[in-house]
Hints:
two-stranded antiparallel sheet; Arc Repressor Mutant, subunit A; mainly alpha; 6% strand
Amino acid sequence: MTSAAAQSIFSSMSNHLPEESREVLSAEFLHWFRIVEDHSHDLIQEHLDPFGLSLSQGFLFGLIADWALKGIAPLQKDVEGDMRLATSSITNLVQGLERKGLIARQDSAADGRAKELHITEKGWKMREQLGRRRVEWQTALTNPLTQDELTTMVQLLKKMGRSYE
Length: 165
């Protein structure tokens, strides 16, 4: 069965289910989604462990690197919204990355009170190593699915995600 056929069947089935059955399926979906999310976190943490990074530090480091690749040195307040954490938590994460020599804080030219976050040379080397390992955990996470199932899953998750934008 092609992914388009599977998506069509799923779509037509879910639109015609009695309300109770849709509620049961939604609860089951959330149950399995949490299991996959937990496994994803475990896989990511397993790949961060050799670098001495927590999941939150890895996520923050990735955000700072993504900004830097766009030619932007983010301010600490910029990453607070992306991380959805309190200022004090972000400060602790930033200080941890700074102690490891992966980032450096510098006074902002635009606002002397604000600090820009910059990836250090050591940080860029580590990012390159992490990038090579990222493919490993991403592949491990999706290994149980066939190519068609993975394609269908991506299409369905895109549909869900776009509905919330």
